[in-house]
Design brief:
With 571 residues, this protein is mainly alpha-helical. Helices cover 77% and strands 1% of the residues.
Length: 571
C-alpha cells in the first residue's frame, strides 16, 4: 500500500518521504466516524421502549433494533476492508460515511418498526464500509514511532463513548427537542456525518493499493445467510410460538456454515482471495479465541439489552435515568482497561481474572435485586455495576492481542477482520438469545408474582365484601391477564383475559363504596406483581449470564498464555 500526496512538492531527494502533513487532523475525522458507530450501537438499548411505544411492534422489535445493526455490520466488515484495497480507502470512507448518515436520516423519519429495522440495516452495512478504512489509513499515514500514539487514541474515545452514549440517548429522548423524542438520537448523526464527510474531503489522503484482492461475493452471501438463519428464528420464534420451521432454520444455519467453510477452502486452494483464510481455523488459539469471543460478546450485548429493558419497563426509570444507571458500568470498563495495561505481562491470566471479576459483579447485581427487591435504586446498583465494568475492561483489553499471538504475519489482516466481525455477530446473537429468554420467562414470572401477592389481595377483597368464590375467579383472572399482557405482541391491545377480569370485577361489586375499593386493590396488586415479576425474571437471566461467563473462563485455556512480543493486535 502506498500513500499519494504525502511528500511536499519540493522534495526531490532519495531520503524517505516525510509523514503525511494532515495526519492528526485525519485521525480526528476517523475518530468521529468511530464515535458515530459506538453511539449507534448502544443508543437503541436506552431508547428502545420509547421507540416501541411510538411506532408499535412486539418485544422482538426491541431485539431487532440492536441485532439488525450489528448483524449487518458483522457480515459486511471483512468485505468493507477489501473494498478499500480495491477502490481506495478515502473513496470508500466517503461512501460509508454518506451512506451511514443517510441511514441515520431514514431511522429518524421511520413511521413503522419494519422501516426502522430496515434503516438500521442500512446503517450497519455502510458502517461496515466506513470503519475498516480508518484503521488502514492510520497505518499508512503515521510513522512507526507515532502509530502507537495514534492507535492509543481509540481507547479514551471508546471509553468516553461508552460513558456518554447511554446518557446522551436518555437525555435526548427525555428532552424531546422540537417534539422529536427518540428520533433525535438519529438526527444527531446528521451534523456528525456532515462534519466527517467535509473533514474526509479535506484531510484524508488519497491511497492507491499495490495489491487489489478480488471480492468473495459468494462467501459473503453464504456467511450472511448462515447468520440470518440462526438470528431470525431466535428473535421471532417466541412470538410465533416456536413452530417447526424455526428449528429447521437453525439446523440449516449449521449446514450453510459448513458449506461456507468448504467453499472458502476450495477458493483458497484455487489461488483466489477467500473471505476468511481457512488456515486460521487450524490454529487452536485462533479457533478458541473466536469461540470465546462469540460467547463473551453475546453475553455482554445481551446483558446490556436486558438490563436496560428491566430498568425502564420493570422499574419504570426514565430513559435518562436508565442511561445514568449504566455510567458505573462504563466507568468501570475504563478503569479495567487502565489496570490491564499495568499487568499486561501476565497475558491470559489478566483475561481470566477479568472474567471472574465480571462474574462477581453480575452476582452482585443479583444479590442487590434479591435484597432490595422491586424498590431497588440506582445508588444500590452502583457498586455491582462498577465491578462488572472493571471485569469487562480487564477481559477485553488483552483479548485481541492474545488471540492474534499464533497468527502468521500474512494472516493478520484476515484474522483482524474476522475477529471484529465475530465481535459484531456475537452481539447480534446475544441480543437474540438473552432477549428471547428474558421475554420468554416474563409470562410465567408475572403469573408467579401474582400468586405471591394473592394472599394480600384476598384480604383486601374480603374487606370489600367479595365472596370467596368471586375472589378465586378474580385472582385467577388477574394471574392470566398479567401473564398474557407480559407476552402480548401489542402492549396496547385489549386482551380477552383482561376483559374477563374487568367483567368478573364488576360482577363482584355489592355496593358503591366497594366499586372503588376493589379496582384500587387490583391495581396495587398488579403493580407490585409487575415489578417483582420483572425482578425475578431478571435474576434468572443473571444466572444465565454468569454461566456464560464461566464458559468464557474455560474457553480462555485454549488461548496462548501471552500476546505477541510486539504487542500488535486488533482494535
Amino acid at each position: 500500500m502506498s500513500t499519494t500526496g504525502v511528500a511536499s512538492p519540493e522534495t526531490h531527494t532519495e531520503s524517505p518521504a516525510p509523514p503525511y502533513r494532515w495526519r492528526w487532523a485525519a485521525l480526528f475525522v476517523i475518530l468521529a466516524a468511530e464515535v458515530m458507530d459506538l453511539l449507534d450501537a448502544v443508543v437503541t438499548n436506552i431508547a428502545g421502549p420509547s421507540i416501541r411505544a411510538d411506532v408499535g411492534g412486539g418485544a422482538s422489535t426491541l431485539q431487532w433494533l440492536a441485532a439488525a445493526y450489528t448483524l449487518a455490520m458483522a457480515v459486511g466488515l471483512v468485505t468493507g476492508g477489501r473494498l478499500g484495497d480495491i477502490h481506495g480507502r478515502r473513496r470508500m470512507f466517503l461512501v460509508g460515511a454518506a451512506g451511514f448518515t443517510a441511514g441515520s436520516l431514514l431511522c429518524a423519519v421511520s413511521m413503522s418498526p419494519q422501516m426502522l429495522i430496515a434503516a438500521r440495516v442500512v446503517q450497519g452495512v455502510f458502517g461496515a464500509v466506513m470503519l475498516p478504512q480508518g484503521l488502514g489509513m492510520i497505518k499508512e499515514m503515521f510513522p512507526p514511532k507515532e502509530s502507537q500514539k495514534a492507535f492509543g487514541m481509540f481507547g479514551p474515545v471508546m471509553g468516553l463513548s461508552a460513558v456518554c452514549g447511554p446518557v446522551l440517548a436518555g437525555w435526548l429522548v427525555d428532552a424531546d427537542y422540537f417534539g422529536t423524542g427518540w428520533r433525535m438520537i438519529f438526527l444527531i448523526n446528521l451534523p456528525l456525518g456532515a462534519a466527517a464527510l467535509l473533514g474526509a474531503l479535506r484531510y484524508l489522503p488519497r491511497t492507491v493499493s499495490d495489491d487489489k484482492p478480488r471480492l468473495d461475493i459468494p462467501g459473503m452471501v453464504l456467511v450472511s445467510l448462515a447468520a440470518l438463519l440462526v438470528i431470525f428464528p431466535l428473535v421471532q420464534g417466541r412470538e410465533y410460538d416456536w413452530p417447526v420451521w424455526t428449528f429447521l432454520m437453525m439446523g440449516a444455519s449449521v449446514a450453510v456454515f459448513v458449506v461456507f467453510g468448504v467453499y472458502e477452502s476450495r477458493r483458497s486452494r484455487a489461488g483466489r482471495d477467500p473471505l476468511v483464510i481457512p488456515s486460521l481455523f487450524r490454529k487452536r488459539g485462533f479457533s478458541g479465541g473466536m469461540t470465546l469471543g462469540l460467547v463473551f460478546f453475546s453475553t455482554m450485548q445481551g446483558f446490556m439489552l436486558v438490563f436496560n429493558l428491566y430498568t425502564q419497563i420493570g422499574l419504570g426509570y426514565s430513559p435518562l435515568k436508565a442511561g445514568l444507571v449504566m455510567v458505573p458500568w462504563s466507568g468501570g470498563m475504563i478503569v479495567g482497561f487502565g489496570v490491564a495495561q499495568g499487568v499486561a505481562r501476565f497475558g491470559r491470566a489478566v483475561l481470566q481474572a477479568g472474567t471472574l471479576v465480571m462474574a462477581a459483579g453480575v452476582f452482585g447485581v443479583w444479590l442487590t435485586l434479591d435484597m432490595a427487591g422491586s424498590g431497588v435504586g440506582p445508588w444500590q446498583l452502583l457498586p455491582a455495576l462498577l465491578v462488572t465494568g472493571i471485569g469487562m475492561g480487564l477481559l477485553m483489553a488483552p483479548f485481541f492481542d492474545i488471540v492474534l499471538a499464533g497468527v502468521d504475519q500474512h494472516e493478520t489482516g484476515s484474522a483482524s477482520g474476522t475477529m471484529t466481525a465475530v465481535q459484531q455477530l456475537g452481539g447480534a446473537f446475544g441480543v437474540a438469545l438473552l432477549g428471547t429468554v428474558f421475554f420468554g420467562l416474563l409470562g410465567g414470572g408475572m403469573a408467579t408474582a401474582v400468586d405471591h401477592h394473592s394472599d394480600g389481595l384476598r384480604g383486601q377483597l374480603t374487606a370489600a365484601h367479595v365472596t370467596p368464590a368471586a375472589q378465586e375467579r378474580i385472582v385467577a383472572d388477574l394471574r392470566t391477564c398479567s401473564s398474557d399482557r407480559a407476552v402480548a405482541k401489542d402492549p396496547e391491545a385489549t386482551l380477552a383475559s383482561c376483559a374477563r377480569l374487568e367483567k368478573d370485577t364488576r360482577s363482584a361489586v355489592t355496593s358503591p363504596q366497594d366499586a372503588a375499593r376493589i379496582p384500587a386493590a387490583l391495581r396495587d396488586t398488579a403493580s407490585s406483581a409487575f415489578r417483582s415479576g420483572f425482578g425475578a425474571v431478571m435474576q434468572t437471566v443473571l444466572w444465565i449470564v454468569d454461566g456464560m461467563l464461566a464458559l468464557t473462563f474455560l474457553l480462555a485455556f485454549l488461548l496462548p498464555r501471552h500476546a505477541r512480543p510486539e504487542g500488535a493486535g486488533g482494535h
